[in-house]
């Protein structure tokens, strides 16, 4: 079951930190963003995501994280499908910014996102420590987008 959380969003910080490892960066979008959780019937949270409204019907998936023991079971894909369906009533495009990593790029492309543009040196300029994924340092942010009403 996927549901939106309106209060005490910080309770999910441990999961959010899996996708964005700097708490100060999460704090920048968590307050203004909409938080969704994927939980089973016992209330065990499997995945979380945060979506922000950027401008004029453009939404951004700021954070998507699945509990490590629950990864590769389809929860992330179900969450992406859910938020894209949810926000298509209010907008036209969902975008996501991620590192150029062999772990994340194929996932988002499989969810129907295509490369839009790159933000040079994003991970160098905005984080207080080097960010590594799949053994490589992330430098540039790759922004992918998906039309919501296609």
Please give a structural write-up:
This protein is of the alpha+beta class and 150 residues long. 26% of the residues lie in helices and 36% in strands. The chain has 5 helices and 9 strands; from the N terminus they run βααβββαβαβαβββ. The chain has helices at 13-19, 23-30, 75-87, 105-110, 122-126, and strands spanning 2-5, 34-39, 45-55, 58-66, 93-99, 114-119, 132-133, 136-137, 141-147. The strands form 2 sheets. A 7-stranded mixed β-sheet has the order 1-2-3-4-5-9-6, with helices on both faces. A two-stranded antiparallel ribbon has the order 7-8. Strand 7 and strand 8 (136-137) form a beta hairpin. The longest helix is centred in the middle third of the chain and has 13 residues, at 75-87. It is globular. It starts with a strand and ends with a strand. The relative contact order is 0.15. The model has no long low-confidence stretch (mean pLDDT 94).
- SSE string, helix = H, strand = E? EHHEEEHEHEHEEE
Amount of helix: 25-40%
Strand ordering within the main sheet: 1-2-3-4-5-9-6
Low-confidence stretches: none
Structural class: alpha+beta
Mean pLDDT: 94
Q: What tags apply to this protein structure?
A:
seven-stranded mixed β-sheet, single chain, alpha+beta, 5 helices, 150 residues
Itemize the secondary structure elements and their pairings.
Layout: E1 2-5, H1 13-19, H2 23-30, E2 34-39, E3 45-55, E4 58-66, H3 75-87, E5 93-99, H4 105-110, E6 114-119, H5 122-126, E7 132-133, E8 136-137, E9 141-147
Parallel strand pairs: 4-5
Antiparallel strand pairs: 1-2, 2-3, 3-4, 5-9, 6-9, 7-8
């Amino acid at each position: 079951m996927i549901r939106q959380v309106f209060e005490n969003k910080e309770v999910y910080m441990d999961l959010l930190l899996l996708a964005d490892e700097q708490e100060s960066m999460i704090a920048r979008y968590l307050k203004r963003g909409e938080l969704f959780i994927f939980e089973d019937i016992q209330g065990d949270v499997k995945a979380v995501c945060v979506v922000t409204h950027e401008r004029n019907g453009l939404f951004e998936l700021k954070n998507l994280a699945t509990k490590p023991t629950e990864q590769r079971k389809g929860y992330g894909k179900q969450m992406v499908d859910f938020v894209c369906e949810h926000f298509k009533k209010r907008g036209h495009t969902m975008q996501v910014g991620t590192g150029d990593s062999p772990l994340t790029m194929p996932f988002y492309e499989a969810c129907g996102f295509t490369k839009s543009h790159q933000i040079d040196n994003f991970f160098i300029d905005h984080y207080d420590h080097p960010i590594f994924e799949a053994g490589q340092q992330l430098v540039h942010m790759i922004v992918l987008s998906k039309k919501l009403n296609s």
